[in-house]
Amino acid sequence: MGGFFDGILLHQILQWHHLLSGVEEARQDIRVLILTDGLFHALMYVVAAAGLWLLWRSRHSFAARGADRLLFASALIGFGVWHILDSVLSHWILGIHRIRMDVENRMFWDLLWFVVFGLVPLALGAYLRRNGMRGDGRRISKGPVGLALAVLIAGPLAALPAPNEGPIMIVFGPGSTAARAMQGLEASGGRLLWSDASDMVWAVDMSAGGDVKLFYKHGAILISNSIFPAGCFNWTRV
Hints:
The protein is an alpha+beta fold and 238 residues long.
């Protein structure tokens, strides 16, 4: 859940960073950032599937006294540990990204995230695990089902495409040509607003409607509803 939360909120909704946004070589090519983000999301699907499988394997222990609180406490601990490790390793040791790349005081946001989503869930989970285990198990059916539903909902949310209306950003993959991209523009009914020097990153107006997913058939590897220079694109060199 920690990985899905990070990917959905920071990469897609707020668009504060990419996985390798702190690596200068990767920042030179937005397609490298997109590829590594995609690999990160793919890994999170594998981790989520493994977690659901382990949850299913341990289903016979759910009737034990206080098992619902133990499950909730373990979920909080795992969520907190994820963000603590991400902060220490990714932000401060490896430096591959920070919570916000578009601000001067990056450490403030790192520490805020570390405390709110790392230390607080970890401490709450540890407290519940130690002091909250006096339940009678009668509500246990809700715990595993709720946790499984949260994972099953987060997965599809992480894969949602951009909407069909309004301005969008489109990044074309290696081997794509401007002519092929223009064919996608005509097929989708969009209007070109801006392109970078390589003609591989476009801003397109889709306010007239049409099917934005048609760009994928014409070489697109990313379709985002964040218009340049908002979100991650405002500090990425293209």
